[in-house]
Write a structure and sequence with these properties.
The complex is a heterodimer of chains A (332) and B (180). Chain A is of the alpha/beta class and 332 residues long. In chain A, β3, α3 and β4 form a beta-alpha-beta unit. With 180 residues, chain B is of the alpha+beta class. The chains are: A alpha/beta (332), B alpha+beta (180).
């Protein structure tokens, strides 16, 4: 269901990045508090309550919205942290809360009826039945779609539901069911969906030996780079491992999603909002990606040719490689 | 991790000037500057969390000396040290001076410099990430570090940033300059 202009939803890990995203043309910015309640809980990242309130004021003054991600899952005995984060987001004047845990959704639905609820991708809701449940039970107004659907499936889904949908168009991909990463949990003892961090930096190390650089996570070798070769941040899903006698990216190639060429298609499929991934990325990345997508979305809305988005953003993609992911699924 | 930097090194004339600069009491001057910044912008240091008491070893590879920095707000300390003292710090960051200064003022992207080996980092990844995110959000300008404001600050920012950009342009490989 979509009748208005398509909305561009952009990431911000710090107040400076929020301002950069807004100034680059974001219709909405998503961000989180500086604790375990959001899925990008890295040191030095995220917002205090005061910074969030100031960020909301800045965004509103420039005609943009702020969506607060409280999208990890509460743990037994510690759900209060998530409830307080939701209360704080409302107090800051946020335009929506993005949540996945039914305890958080329930708390917001019962106590803060005035704020919009968006269902986080962490909930991995991809059927009319599951989306209908969240909409009817908690009044969810928008669903962030898991990155497993073809564009045809997105269109079919949109015809069968009565809430807005938001689709990822750029950034990192997760080979697991949206953050339910047992690999990371096994190796580090910390879960992306419970502690908000995949490959926690305190367990990451880079070591130099005669063959180059070895990147390790919690003692496990994730990759090895020859001297002088570009290095990467070690995540288990994008590591190079030996299986049998073949060394390869066993789980997932280090490529980034770029569905910039599919904006018109996603719009026709009924998608309300396009989402850019990357709250852990810097101002330079956010500014360039948001500005490029702003131009592309505007071009599509005006019926003109899309810009050369793949070429422009190649430098911002992981490993310099891009994919349209499941939207153009060719393996089924 | 070692350094494979091929660009961003200081030009010969600047290398000749730096021994003179090194004769100045750089450590106490930078300590005062950082504490003055903490007085004016205390929230900036809160972003470091527990990592504000970490000792960071900053090694500009084109200078004969290095720095240690403990960015602990009003208790911050900067020291000029010998390159051999890296082992006593939790984090070591190495790179050409102009690249390191580019990180400080936000001209350059730290991730890109690290992943492409222009700078190297060893030690606590958590502390490095906290510092990177703090600097990223701080949007520091030269005048902030010098404690200046008003039109003098604007002139100083324009002069220093313009000078640094010129130096970076001069130190780029010839082919890159032509493409630019």
């Amino acid at each position: 269901m979509r009748s208005k202009r398509i909305e561009l939803v952009c990431p911000a890990g710090t107040p400076a990045t929020l301002r950069a995203a807004v100034q680059a043309g974001a219709d909405a910015v998503y961000c989180g508090f500086r604790d375990e309640t959001n899925a990008r809980n890295f040191p030095g990242l995220n917002f205090s309550t005061e910074e969030m309130a100031e960020g909301v004021r800045f965004a509103h003054a420039h005609g943009s919205k702020v969506l607060v991600a409280i999208n990890t899952f509460g743990r037994v005995g510690s759900v209060d942290l998530w409830r307080k984060a939701a209360d704080a987001a409302v107090g800051c004047g946020a335009d929506a809360i993005i949540a996945a845990d039914i305890a958080v959704l329930d708390h917001v639905a019962r106590n803060h009826k005035q704020i919009r609820l968006h269902l986080s991708v962490q909930a991995a809701a991809a059927t009319p039945e599951s989306i209908g449940f969240y909409a009817e039970t908690f009044g969810v107004r928008r669903v962030v779609l898991p990155r497993v659907l073809t564009i045809h499936e997105v269109a079919t889904l949109n015809r069968a539901i009565h809430v807005e949908t938001e689709a990822f168009v750029f950034g990192g991909l997760c080979v697991m069911t949206e953050g339910r990463c047992y690999l990371s949990s096994y190796a580090t003892g910390k879960s992306p969906n419970l502690h908000g961090v995949c490959s926690p930096p305190e367990m990451v190390s880079y070591e130099e030996d005669i063959d180059g650089t070895v990147a390790r996570l919690s003692g496990f070798t994730i990759d090895q780079y020859s001297p002088g070769a570009p290095v990467g941040y070690p995540t288990l899903c994008k590591g190079r491992f030996k299986a049998g006698d073949k060394t390869s990216y066993l789980f997932e190639d280090p490529v980034s999603l770029n569905a910039g060429s599919m904006i018109a298609g996603l719009s026709a499929a009924g998608v309300t909002a396009l989402k850019i991934e990357g709250r852990q990325r810097g101002k330079g990345y956010v500014t360039e990606v948001v500005r490029t997508f702003r131009r592309a979305v505007d071009a599509v809305e005006q019926g003109s040719d899309t810009i050369e988005i793949d070429r422009i953003l190649a430098g911002q993609s992981e490993g310099g490689r891009q994919t349209t992911g499941a939207y153009r699924k060719s393996w089924r | 991790m070692s350094l494979y930097a091929t660009e961003g090194g200081l030009p010969p004339i600047a290398r000749r000037i730096f021994p003179i600069v090194a004769g100045l009491p750089l450590g106490p001057m930078l300590t005062l500057s950082l504490r003055s910044l903490a007085r004016r912008r205390p929230v900036m240091f809160e972003r470091l969390g527990e990592h504000r008491s970490v000792r960071y070893f900053i090694d500009p590879v084109d200078l004969a000396f290095a720095f240690t920095i403990v960015p602990d707000g009003m208790r911050s300390v900067v020291r000029v040290v010998r390159k051999e003292e890296a082992a006593e710090s939790s984090v070591v960051v190495r790179g050409p001076l102009l690249m390191l200064l580019g990180l400080l003022d936000g001209t350059l992207d730290g991730d890109a410099l690290f992943f492409n080996r222009v700078i190297s980092v060893s030690g606590s990844t958590e502390a490095v990430l906290a510092l990177r995110n703090t600097i990223e959000d701080a949007e520091l300008l030269p005048a902030d570090l010098l404690g200046l404001s008003g039109s003098l600050a604007s002139a100083m920012n324009a002069g220093i940033l313009g000078g640094l950009e010129t130096l970076r342009r001069l130190t780029r490989p010839e082919q890159s300059r032509e493409e630019a």
